[in-house]
Specification:
The protein has 555 residues and is of the alpha+beta class. Helix content is 33%, strand content 21%. The chain contains 14 helices and 26 strands. The strands form seven sheets. The chain has a seven-stranded mixed sheet with strand order 13-21-20-17-16-14-15, sandwiched between helices. Strands 1-9-6-11-4 form a five-stranded antiparallel sheet. A five-stranded antiparallel sheet has the order 8-7-10-5-12. Strand 2 and strand 3 form a beta hairpin. Helix 6 crosses helix 7 and helix 6 crosses helix 10. The N terminus is likely disordered. Bound molecules: pyridoxal-5'-phosphate. Pyridoxal-5'-phosphate binds next to helix 6 and helix 7.
């Protein structure tokens, strides 16, 4: 046990001196420990002649909300308490009077703390076994807990606790994406923001929505941003606001999420597919001219995987033919094209804030950005029952508004977006470097004048995609395919006469792409594990081939 107290009972000096806190395991063990470790934090003490006021507040020092307070007092001397583990509950212990020893165990490591002053608190993360002993006779120990009482969260037997830990470790995988991890990082901020909307009593529109709209417009370097219900409706209503409907043709890439085409068909216009670039999978601007007819009204370039489309030549063609350009920026929050933000490159841009997107809400949400306030007003009206004045409906609109609760979440997350995107870029560079020598695999390409935000890291593995995906899955690594069925081959478009064979590049993407885990909440260790498993797959194949050749020679 590491005794952190001193006989003079002056914890300030100990904390200020930066004594190592916690951890008696051999050096090097720390590396294998996953997650938060227990730690002492300072309790704010406000002193004046009347006495001391101590404050423990959830915030940066204790990054969770307290749901319950309890305390231990009148302890018989020599008593011990605790002797249980918590799977999810986090705790903050403060010894208000006297002293107590708290022993912790997690992942085979142990920690010992002696609390004997009220100006320090011990934060115990989730997943720890705890035992309290050595109470002084006058001990008074306060405990702040992150959850209300729930028996299912307790493990009351040490061997059961260790078994639970073993099972959890054995199931340790690299998830393709685990959105719950964001809670550990920003949960408290998000809860606070949501609570303030709940307390406000305003649940449609209002100041939080306006605040997000102006913050997001600023972020995208555009004049206007409109919060909407989802990304699909953002595309749809932008087309509608432009008067695009039956009889109009709209150019969309043949390789995209179906929403891009679906928005076109749902306004009654005709999607015209254009094949994509073989290296990036993005709308091939060189093929645009051949697709333009006298019915063409708009182009919807998709910054797929967070990688910007080559917009300058696209805009030149669009201007020459008087076409409306609507960026589908649903995967490209923060990406830049020649130092200009996606969302500011066309006439308007549709965003999705679906939870998995780089900027994601806690449910459905979307938005539109544009430079023209008149156009913004028209979209806003369409999204609000075709009405600007309550109960007066000027046109046939629909209901597609951004909820203030989602706006509050998005405002919090927008503050972190650049840091998250930077982490994605760092991880993408790591993959690009670590996987560059695998000949059977084609890594994602981008134009160096641009900064993609790596919504998806999609490699291409001709002929081996499904096999690699199965192997990775067997090794506990989650992957995804974006997207296995091209727009032209979707059943919903069976009657539309798209001929999939006319878009061979898009078809090859559908057959060959595999998305590797890449999210700011992944750890570098997890990415290294992905690289190891990918390499192991190709190494094993190379070995099999060598064995096959020598087998032949031996005949
Ligand atoms: C997610 C997405 C959409 C649709 O957004 P929703 O909010 O899910 O309606 C549209 N286009 C692309 C490229 C997307 O990735």
């Amino acid at each position: 046990m590491q005794n952190l107290s001193t006989s003079e009972n002056r914890p300030e000096s100990r904390l200020a001196a930066g004594m190592p806190m916690g951890g008696i395991a051999p050096a090097g063990d720390r590396k294998s420990f996953k997650g938060e470790i227990p730690r002492l934090v300072k309790v704010k003490i406000i002193s004046d002649p009347r006495g001391n006021l101590g404050v423990v507040e959830s915030g940066a020092e204790s990054p969770f909300n307290f749901q319950r307070f309890y305390f231990l007092t009148d302890l018989s001397s020599g008593a011990s308490r605790g002797g249980h583990g918590h799977k999810r509950l986090r705790q903050c212990f403060v010894c208000l009077r006297g002293s107590v020893t708290i022993d912790l165990e997690s992942q085979g490591r142990t920690w010992g703390f002696k609390l004997d002053a009220y100006n320090q608190a011990l934060l115990v993360p989730a997943g720890f076994w705890r035992e309290l002993s050595g109470f002084s006779e006058d001990a008074l120990v306060g405990v702040l807990a992150s959850e209300v009482y729930e028996e299912a969260d307790y493990i009351r037997d040490i061997s059961a606790f260790r078994k639970w830990e073993r099972e959890r470790a054995a199931a340790a995988t690299v998830p393709y994406l685990d959105l719950a991890r964001y809670n550990d990082s920003i949960g408290l901020e998000v809860e606070r923001a949501v609570r303030s909307v709940i307390a406000s009593g305003a649940y449609i529109g209002g100041p939080v929505v306006e605040q997000f709209e102006s913050a997001f417009a600023r972020y995208c370097d555009v004049q206007c941003a409109i919060g909407m219900g989802n990304g699909l409706q953002a595309i749809e209503l932008a087309l509608k606001a432009k008067g695009i409907g039956p009889g109009s043709e709209v150019i969309v890439p043949a390789h995209t999420f179906v929403a891009t085409a679906l928005a076109v068909t749902s306004v009654g216009a005709t999607p015209v597919l254009v094949d994509v670039e073989p290296d990036t999978g993005l709308l091939d601007v060189k093929r645009l001219r051949d697709a333009i007819t006298d019915r063409t009204r708009a182009i919807v370039p998709v910054h797929l995987y967070g990688n910007p489309v080559d917009m300058d030549p696209l805009m030149d063609i669009a201007r020459a033919h008087d076409l409306f350009v609507l960026e589908d920026a649903a995967q490209a929050h923060g990406a830049t094209y020649h130092n200009r933000k996606c969302g500011s490159l066309g006439d308007a841009a549709a965003f999705s804030f679906y939870p998995t997107k780089n900027l994601g809400a806690l449910g459905d949400a979307g938005g539109l950005t544009c430079a023209d306030p008149n156009f913004a007003d028209r979209v806003r009206r369409l999204a609000n029952y075709g009405s600007t004045k309550k109960y007066h409906h000027e046109e046939l609109g629909t209901n597609s508004r951004l909820d203030p609760i989602q706006a509050a979440v998005l405002l919090v997350k927008l503050r972190h977006l650049d840091a998250w995107n930077a982490r994605r870029q760092e991880y993408a560079s790591f993959y690009l470097d670590a996987l560059s020598d695998i000949e059977e695999m084609q890594l994602p390409a981008y134009r160096t004048a641009n900064k993609p935000v790596w919504h998806v890291f999609a490699v291409r593995v001709p002929g081996l995609r499904d096999e690699l995906q199965r192997a990775l899955s067997g090794a506990g690594i989650g992957t995804n395919v974006h997207y296995p069925v091209s727009v032209a081959r979707q059943k919903c478009y069976a009657g539309f006469g798209f001929q999939a064979e006319r878009f061979p590049v898009a078809e090859s993407f559908a057959r060959e792409v595999l998305s590797l885990p890449l999210d700011p909440m992944h750890t570098m260790q997890e990415l290294e594990q992905v690289v190891r498993e990918v390499r192991a797959f190709f190494d094993a194949r190379a070995r099999d081939r060598r064995v096959g050749v020598s087998g032949l020679l031996a005949q």
